[in-house]
């Protein structure tokens, strides 16, 4: 497959994630949309790594870096989710809602 | 159209459709289920590109661990009834337009790139296998790997400290 199909697919998923972050007020759904954006980037990194591998074609390890970056993104995302969900649980315990409009009191 | 292209389009339609379901569903549980389907479709794409290690890790970490955590929190807080107030319709329309504009700008930027006809290797090549990735991970990337374990430890301690009752 040409790379532009994969780029368009990843852009589509990323834009859906952006729209979700901008329009939804539920903190958990906003968080899931961030995960969706991370996965779009992961898909694009893997596609570019395979493109790089076939374009250079030289040694066996060309393009391995991209897939290892995807692995590290997954590690960081897992750590982020655990802390973020703990914050959401604490917020629910304090204000009995997970509407992110409640967070604007952080301004004061 | 050979079988690879058919699978590519089927997985693409599944991924985009369930991603739209994540954004539009009223009930948060349906959003979680849509996100799980999206992750499985993305894992299918990884398998098509012969990135087997990442496909399995994606299923185990995302669809297995992270999504179960989301479902657990939603059910723990009993949020499955939709309590979201539709306060501002205009805000939603403006958000959708902004996201669409981002998509259009990026696709338009793609039109003039040089790489857009380059092929992605499908089904062959062994850089995605556990053997190659493991060797690279434990030689070149061994220090980031160890730092990632420290990051996990601190995230675990942080989650426990934040989630603890006073």
Radius of gyration from the alpha-carbon trace of chain A, in angstroms: 18 Å
Structural domain count of chain A: 1
C-alpha geometry of chain A? elongated
CATH topology of the largest domain in chain B: Four Helix Bundle (Hemerythrin (Met), subunit A)
How would a crystallographer describe the biggest sheet of chain B?
A: none
Structural class of chain B: mainly alpha
- Can you tell me the residue ranges of chain B where pLDDT is under 50 for at least 5 consecutive residues? none
Q: What is the number of E strands of chain B?
A: 0
Helix share of residues of chain B? over 70%
Helix count of chain B equals 6
Give me the Rg of chain B, rounded: 20 Å
CATH level-two architecture of the largest domain in chain B: Up-down Bundle
Helix/strand structural class of chain A: mainly alpha
CA distance, first residue to last residue of chain B? 61 Å
The largest β sheet of chain A comes out as:
none
Provide the domain count of chain B. 2
Q: Outline the low-pLDDT stretches of chain A.
A: none
Overall pLDDT level of chain B: 87
Number of extended strands of chain A: 0
The share of residues in extended strands of chain B comes to under 5%
What is the tally of helical segments of chain A? 3
């Amino acid at each position: 497959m040409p790379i532009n199909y994969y780029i368009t697919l990843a852009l589509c998923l990323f834009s859906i994630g952006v729209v979700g972050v901008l329009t939804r007020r539920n903190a958990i759904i906003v968080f899931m949309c961030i995960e969706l954006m991370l996965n779009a980037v992961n898909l694009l990194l893997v596609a570019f790594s395979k493109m790089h591998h076939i374009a250079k074609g030289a040694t066996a390890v060309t393009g391995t870096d991209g897939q290892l970056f995807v692995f590290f993104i997954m590690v960081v995302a897992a750590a982020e989710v655990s802390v973020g969900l703990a914050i959401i649980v604490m917020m629910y315990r304090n204000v009995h809602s997970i509407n992110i409009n409640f967070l604007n009191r952080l301004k004061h | 159209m050979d079988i690879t292209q058919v699978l590519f389009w089927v997985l693409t339609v599944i991924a985009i459709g369930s991603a739209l379901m994540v954004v539009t569903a009223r009930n948060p549980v349906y959003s979680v289920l849509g996100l799980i389907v999206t992750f499985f479709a993305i894992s299918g794409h990884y398998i098509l590109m012969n990135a087997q290690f990442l496909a399995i890790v994606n299923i185990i970490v995302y669809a297995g661990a992270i999504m179960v955590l989301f479902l657990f929190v939603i059910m723990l807080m009993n949020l499955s009834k939709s309590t979201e107030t539709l306060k501002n319709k205009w805000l939603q329309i403006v958000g959708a337009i902004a996201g669409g504009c981002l998509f259009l700008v990026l696709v338009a930027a793609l039109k003039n790139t040089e790489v857009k006809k380059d092929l992605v290797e499908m089904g062959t090549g062994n850089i995605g296998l556990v053997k190659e990735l493991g060797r690279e991970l434990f030689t070149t990337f061994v220090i980031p790997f160890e730092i990632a374990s420290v990051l996990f430890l601190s995230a675990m301690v942080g989650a426990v400290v934040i989630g603890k009752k006073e």
